[in-house]
Design brief:
Elements lengths: L2 E7 L4 H15 L3 E7 L2 H10 L4 E4 L7 H7 L4 H7 L1 H12 L4 E5 L3 E3 L4 H7 L4 E5 L10 H4 L2 E9 L2 H16 L3 E2 L4 E2 L8 H4 L3 E3 L17 E4 L2 E4 L2 E2 L2 E3 L4 E5 L5 E4 L8 H24 L11 H9 L4 E2 L1
Parallel strand pairs: 1-2, 1-4, 2-3, 6-10
Antiparallel strand pairs: 4-7, 5-14, 6-7, 8-9, 11-12, 12-13, 15-16, 16-17
Helix pairs in contact: 1-10, 5-8
Length: about 325
């Protein structure tokens, strides 16, 4: 099976996007294509210079959605990025034809093992999404963030798949902002109603899919034969939400805060976060050679020391 993926990011997220691509290369081999919607010209130029073999670079204009271009004139960058996944996937499915599958990926994901179990769960259905699956002490977050996460969404070019995407696109065109008091979380909370609307929808069950800061403490993370395991099964992908690189040096190490508001045990920091920070570091150096420098967060020394003392400053 040849996987058809898409993602989007700007120059600020370029090292994340490149790390995502390399993780797909590692675990999908040559059997995929990743369409990158470049949200600024800087990232497009840098990636074009790298000439990545399984990447297609698109501008927003390439989606072919005139209404989306009009919306771009009035929305802040963050909200406009949230508006784009629906139109992007619709365009790619139209290009690929009836029966094809396109999977949208957030740029801050990284794959740790074969993605095939996700497609096995999709089977002959039309839509696959995954839950936030909040750990017990974070369950209240669902009210603001929604039941499901948009980090990975697979949709088939079928009547039900296209109906779902068309409706989602229209909703995001109308309103796509962070307004939790009124029930909006960008493009995400719209997914809450999908299971009741689309019988052909599958909710991912594999414990190794959709692992993230808000649920990882509810899982048993171990290592087996060089593979990261979650509850005894391979970790498929992790969502590195709100990771912050805070110190980067020419001497070859990066320091990062995994995610503000969450604490992580040693196994999670060593097996999941350290490899990702190392991947970001390599990606950033490669991008720098193509003229794009990675942004480094500058924070006061006192909170930095606090993270270090709590063991929450990860070196990669």
């Amino acid at each position: 099976m040849r996987y058809n993926f898409c993602t989007l990011f700007d120059s600020n997220y370029a090292s994340r996007g490149l790390s995502l691509y390399r993780s797909l290369e590692k675990h999908c081999g040559e059997d995929f294509v990743l369409t990158v919607l470049c949200m600024d010209e800087e990232v497009r130029h840098a990636l074009a210079a790298m000439n990545l073999p399984r990447v297609r670079l698109w501008r927003v204009e390439d989606i072919g959605d005139a209404e989306l271009l009009e919306v771009r004139k009035t929305r802040p960058r963050r909200e406009f990025c949230w508006t784009c996944p629906g139109p992007l996937v619709l365009s790619l499915l139209g290009e690929a034809g009836v029966g094809s599958i396109v999977t949208y990926l957030d740029a801050d994901l990284m794959f740790f093992s074969d993605i095939k179990p996700i497609y096995d769960e999709l089977g002959d259905k039309d839509i696959l999404i995954h839950g936030h699956n909040f750990a017990p002490r974070f369950e209240s977050y669902a009210k603001a963030s929604g039941i499901f996460n948009v980090g990975l969404i697979s949709v088939r070019n079928s009547e039900q798949g296209m109906t779902c995407l068309t409706r989602w696109r229209a909703q995001n065109m109308e309103k796509c902002e962070l307004d939790p008091e009124n029930g909006y979380c960008g493009d995400q909370k719209y997914l809450d109603e999908w299971p009741s609307l689309y019988p052909g929808l599958v909710i991912l069950k594999h414990p190794g899919g959709g692992v993230a800061p808000w649920n990882v403490e509810a899982h048993d993370v171990t290592e087996q034969g060089g593979k990261v395991m979650v509850d005894g099964l391979p970790l498929i992908f992790y969502h590195f939400h709100a990771l912050r690189v805070v110190v980067a040096g020419n001497w070859g190490r990066w320091f990062a805060i995994p995610s503000v508001g969450y604490d992580f045990n040693l196994a999670v920091r060593r097996l999941i976060y350290q490899p990702y920070i190392a991947a970001l570091r390599k990606a950033a150096w490669d991008l720098k050679r193509c003229g794009l420098s990675a942004p480094i967060l500058k924070i006061p020394l006192r909170p930095l020391i606090s993270f270090f003392r709590r063991g929450q400053l990860v070196i990669g």
